[in-house]
Amino acid sequence: MKALNAGLETLGEHIQFLMTVLKTSFRERFESREFIIQLAQVGWRSLPTTLTAGMFTGAIMAVQFHLQLKDFGAETTLGGLATSGTLREVGPILIAFMLAGKVGAFTSAELGTMKVTDQIEAIRCLGVNPLAFLVVPRFYAVIISSILLLAFGLVISVTGGILAAWASAGLSPEQYLLMIPQYTTGSAVGLAVIKSVVFGALMGHICCANGYWTSGGTQGVGRAVRTTAVQSMVSIVLGDFVVSWIYNGLSRGP
Amino acid sequence: MNLQKISSLPLPLAVLKIAGETFRSILRRKFSFREVMVQTYEFGVGSFGIICLCVTFVGIIMMLEYSYHMKLVIQNDSMIPSFAMIMLARELAPAITALLITSKMGASLASELAAMKTTEQLDAYRLLGLNPIDLFVSPRVIASAVSNFLLSMISLFLSVVGGLFAAVTVLSFSTGSFFQGLFLFVDVWDFVLCGTKAVFFGASIPIISATLGFRCGFGAEGVGLSTTDAVVANSIWIIILDFILTYAFSPLLS
Amino acid sequence: MIAFKSVFKAFGPKKVLNGLSFEVKKGEIYFLLGRSGTGKSVSLKQLVGLLKPDSGEIFLDNQPLHTLTESQFGPIRKKCGLVFQLPALLDSRTVFENVTFGIRDLPLKEQIARTLKILKEVNLENLIEVVSSRYPPQLSYGEQKRLALARTLVVDPDYVLYDEPTTGLDPVTSRNVHKLIENVSKNLGKTAIVVSHDMRNALETADRIAVLDAGRVVDMGTPDEIRKSTVQLTRDFLADIREDKTR
User: Fold this and answer.
1) Cα B141 to Cα B202: distance, rounded to the nearest angstrom
2) CB A126 to CB C155 under 8 A?
3) Is A161:A86 a contact under the CB 8 Å cutoff?
4) For the packed helices A78-85 and A173-183, what is the interaxial angle rounded to 10 degrees?
5) Whole-prediction pTM value?
6) What percent of chain C has pLDDT over 70?
7) Does A8 have pLDDT greater than 80?
8) What's the half-sphere exposure (Cβ side, CA atoms, 13 Å) at A199?
9) Phi, psi (degrees; rounded to nearest 5) at A92
């Protein structure tokens, strides 16, 4: 009961923070320079992580689907099914988990450090709104770069799948690729895109909120990073569930 | 243990070095059994709620996704529970459990050790003739491996419960037909793979986190960055190790 | 003129300010001296609206501050510049962008002119050549602290508030910082409030010194008056210096 209360309280604080950030972003001047710096920094720094995550997720899915399909002699369909499975479900979740660490935790560590070294109060003392100057640009930069990185990771996962199928099932890349359009429908791509957007928005909000709330010196920064990682991962799973459930319901038809 | 050397080595070598020292410390039984119990409790109970919540939803989604994919290839509904169960046991239950443990316990170990390093507590321990590896790493490696194993098994169970829920409410299975289908292809090796992954993931989380904590740089941003790096390095390693183990076990799996 | 009239402030059960009252006249260098945790920094933060008093009144040039809301503090912060204990510079921005942060909306020409003037004032002439290629982490700690001062001065505030400007610095650098505070205040005609626990430099730099204990002023006067004071805490602070001299 206590845990539920605390959870609701946290949720309330998050909603309040989100409202403030959105209000600030419409009312105050948009710091486009800070936004571009963050976009480049966050996006560029996370490319290797995304590449690795995408590659291995695709490979794992290809190996697993191969093991399950070979009993039915349906190995040739591997490319289509593994790609569809990666795009619709496992890919977005696993890659988003990696990004929660790389993008989310990093941004909240940066904001948290600024908070505990008085940089945020110094900005406020110089007559600049720290929410508008630091948080709003990071909020949008994290959202946009996460969406782009997720999409990039998913494209890379196809490469991982091709390599793993070639190594474990002896399937040539052409055979693998030819099956993709047959089984990977527009709806799979659509679901992948929707999930990328939802996960990006969740991560952008969670890392900014926890970074901005940091208190208590350098240990507080560590705590903020941890909270960001946990909250991001949990909300990614829950968001994944909600999106899939609604999407499945809609595509099944009434 | 030479902290300076650990900071100057490239990360993979530093991890190997810490892993070696931890292994030696465990073999020589230089850790306190009490601390192992305390940490097992921390790891297990601390993350229990979150893991339960997340894997149940993952189970529901996997059931829905498998029904979508298998209908494309095999026009036989009855095998879907078994396929979903295999995927959960081999991949998602251990991987998602480990990733959640990483964000909660891995990150907190890294930030704890990093804070200890910046406040020179680690040096103080060494002056007292105590090895930080014996104190903080070895007990947690054992605790994390044990609790990760148990949590993964619980996760597997709960995700199947989630799958049952989805099968009955959405996919018009009866409880009976779900359980008839559940064990069609499931083999003892699937559980072995699940357990092996859990133990390996569990053991590597404290080692990687501790290495990054020990490598923490001074200054305000040090603790935040090493916590972030611990989450990222752990997640990447888990997904790579996941692929390696899946690939190594694939001849044994049907 | 800045006036605190019986200000109270508590953080939970911990009472930090316990009826703090003092007055700072225009143009003087006023030191708030006391042990750690006696509410010195808290009073500075209340002056610029980072914290709110629980009760009591604060006036800046006869304008009440304790009734203002966050958005009304904008003009006050232009008039009262706070220099933090840590440099608190933006690490991802160049020296120039850091210095001109508070005057970003002015024309570029004006920004450059002010920057040149202020950097000379705080003895950072060596940075003039590299203002737009150097970043704060590449500077020494002393340079970072002076840069933080420059960032506050460039807005041209009437009052400059220093929060423990010499904590963690060696005695020689501390003295230089105090000399800098003195020069800046006299040359630019600023009123300075310095929070500190460094009695030696306070006696040399201050026009008036207030000694705080448990959230209120227990002693106040010019350096000469303070030297002759009979208040126990003041004597304890002074004893430290005398021992040094007899050595």
Assistant:
1) 7
2) yes
3) yes
4) 60
5) 0.87
6) 98
7) yes
8) 34
9) -55, -45
Write the Ramachandran bin of B149: left for phi over 0, alpha for psi from -120 to 50, otherwise beta.
Answer: alpha
Sole residue written with tokens 């994919």: B69
Sign of CA dihedral B155, B157, B158, B163: positive
Taking only residues 95 to 114 of chain A, the set having a beta carbon closer than 8 angstroms to any beta carbon of chain B reads 97-98, 100-102, 105-106, 108-110, 112-113
A216: left (phi over 0), alpha (psi -120 to 50) or beta: left
Give the count of alpha carbons within 13 A of A123, CB side only: 19
Lowest-pLDDT range, A39-53, B75-89, C150-164, C221-235? B75-89
pLDDT tens for residues B147-171?
999 999 999 999 999 999 988 888 8
Q: CA–CA separation, A21 vs B13, rounded Å?
A: 43
* Distance (Å) from the alpha carbon of A198 to chain C's nearest alpha carbon: 29
> Across the beta sheet with C63-64, what order do the strands follow?
C14-24, C2-11, C55-60, C63-64
- Interface of A to C at Cβ within 8 Å reads 37, 114, 117-119, 121-128
- The answer to whether C25 and C193 are in contact (CB under 8 A) is no
Chains touching C (3+ CB pairs < 8 Å):
A
Give me B100's structure tokens. Answer: 């959640």
- Per-residue tokens: C127: 């940075």
Q: What is the pLDDT of residue C246?
A: 54
| C-alpha to C-alpha distance for A194 and A183, rounded to whole angstroms | 19
Among all residues of chain C, which has the CA nearest to that of A38? C92
CB of A85 closer than 8 Å to CB of B223: no
C135: left (phi over 0), alpha (psi -120 to 50) or beta: beta
pLDDT at site C245? 58
Output the DSSP codes for C87-127. ----TTS-HHHHHGGGGTTS-HHHHHHHHHHHHHHTT-GGG
Taking residues C216-229, report their average pLDDT. 90
In this predicted structure, the answer to whether residue C191 has a pLDDT above a threshold of 90 is yes
Is B252 an interface residue toward A (CB < 8 Å)?
no
Separation CA C187–CA B82 (nearest Å)? 83
Check: CB of residue C236 under 8 Å from CB of residue C242: no
Instruction: Supply the Cα-derived Rg of chain B in whole angstroms.
Output: 21
Task: Specify whether the CB–CB gap between A56 and B242 falls below 8 A.
Answer: yes
Q: pLDDT tens-digit profile of B215-241?
A: 888 766 788 888 889 999 999 999 999
Tell me phi and psi for residue C168, to 5 degrees.
85, 5
Given a contact cutoff of 8 angstroms between Cβ atoms, the answer to whether B26 and B138 are in contact is yes
Alpha helices in B28-137 (DSSP H): 33-73, 80-87, 93-101, 107-118, 121-127, 132
Residue type, B245: L
